[in-house]
Each structure stands twice: as C-alpha cells, then as structure tokens.
Amino acid sequence: MKISMTNKRVALITGAGSGIGRASAIAFAKTGSKVIVVDLDPLGGNKTVQEIAAIGGEAIFMKADVSSVSQVEKLIQKVIRRYGRLDYAHNNAGIEGEISKTADCSEENWDKVIRTNLKSVWICMKYEIRQMVCQKFGIIVNTSSVYGLVGSERGMPAYVASKHGIIGLTKTAAIEYAKSGIRVNAICAGPVNTPFRKRLVSKSNEDLTRYPLERVAEPQEIANAAVWLCSDETPYITGSTLVIDGGLTAR
Ligand code: NAD
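^ thats the input. predicted complex w/ nicotinamide-adenine-dinucleotide below
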C-alpha cells in the first residue's frame, strides 16, 4: 500500500507476535517506520521481527504483558531510551476468553478478559500519551471489534464488554488530547483469519452468510486501515471507529 507517511517514525504494535498485530507491524515497517514488536510470546514476536528484516525493514522485539502497569511503564521508558520518541501506537493485543453466556461466565474469566483487552488499552494509552504530549505529536489506533458495536449470541459477555469499553476510551482520549497534537481512533473488525479466530471457531461455530461479503478478512486488510489512520492522509480523523466487518453491521 502506498500512502504518505513521514519516514523513520517510531511505531509500537502490541500483540504483534501473531495475526493482526504481526500484519500491522509489517505494514508499518513497509512505510519506513522503526517498529517495536510487543507481545507476551517471544517466539511469535521474534518471528515478526525476522519477517520485517527479510523485507529490509527495522524492528525489535520487546516482551511485555500489556495488562501490567509496571511492565508497560518500563516498556515505554525502554522505547524512549532507545529511539527518543514514539509516534504511532497500535494497541491491539487481546484474547477471546472462555465461551459461556452471561449467567455462566466465571469471575476469573471476566477479570482476565477485561484486564487483557480493556485495562491494557488504558494502561498503554496512559504511557504512550504522556510521551506524545511531550512531543506534541502522536497517533493511536486501538483494536476494538464489531463486538464493540453490537452484542453477541456466542457466549462472550466479557469480550463484548471489553470491546465496547475500548470505543469509549478511544473517544475520551481523542477529545482530551486533540489540542495536544494527538489523534486516537479505533478499528472494529469482523472475523479475521488469525489463530484467534481459529480458536474461536473451534469453540463455537459461526455462520459466515450473516456477513454480506460472506468471507473473513485477511489480517493485512486490518493492518492497512491501521496504517492509513496513522498516515498524513487522515489528519481530520479522530475519535472515530472504523468498521471493517464485511457489511455485518450494515444489516
Ligand atoms: P491472535 O491470537 O492471533 O494474536 C494476539 C496476540 O496478542 C498473540 O500474539 C498474543 O500472544 C498477544 N497477547 C495476548 N495477551 C497479551 C498480553 N497480555 N500482553 C501482550 N501480548 C498479548 O489474535 P488476533 O486475531 O490477531 O487479534 C488481535 C486483536 O484483534 C485482538 O484484540 C482481538 O480481540 C481483535 N479482533 C480479532 C478478530 C478476529 O476475528 N481475529 C476480530 C475482531 C477483533
């Protein structure tokens, strides 16, 4: 994808050891950004770094649990020590959790999903924004989901709540920091061909005919949108939710 972006900027992508995060890391690297690949899984993270190196890009793996305040604080300090700035952040790491309806959802599952998917986005933005305010520049993309817009019959109450919460956080940060040169947007993806989706489908099947396009998206299709939202082509887009769902929520 050819879009105009200032070269040699620094991009941090969470959950970049797999799926959408890996595709996003590769897409940012293709624009000339230096990429920080963040994940819990060093194997997946280092594979992403290798794939970026193979196409001539620049990337480094930094292990962090994005649901931990102390780990994210240290992560951002490390990024600033190494690169001196942070321009783009794609807060994307997430889990599906257990499949169980609202009345059967365990407290443990609720807490884990909310901590991993929602609290993590607040923690990441907390430290990313502090640096971006100092620079008077920064662009953040948060990965929500179509389940940030509608409910699900698939037994994912905590997941749906976490993804709705991300949209509220995104809008709030966008309003709070608009005058500080920071834009914040969310992406609401429908089904995407990743290990996450394979796990989900193995636990609870899904009827693709509900989607007008009747197919899942490839991770690259979501990554392209994340890069576009951070590009020089979108200076007036902030506080928005970009829906990439094969037409599901148009019904
Ligand atoms: P994935 O499972 O392929 O990748 C997620 C990555 O996040 C993994 O590498 C995992 O190790 C990492 N991760 C999980 N918890 C972490 C933590 N606490 N700290 C750091 N890293 C952590 O999943 P994916 O499909 O690429 O999903 C990425 C995001 O997209 C998630 O937020 C998911 O909710 C969202 N999403 C996915 C789909 C889909 O159908 N795949 C649809 C809509 C939204």
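Strands lie at 10-14, 34-39, 58-63, 88-91, 138-143, 182-189, 241-244.
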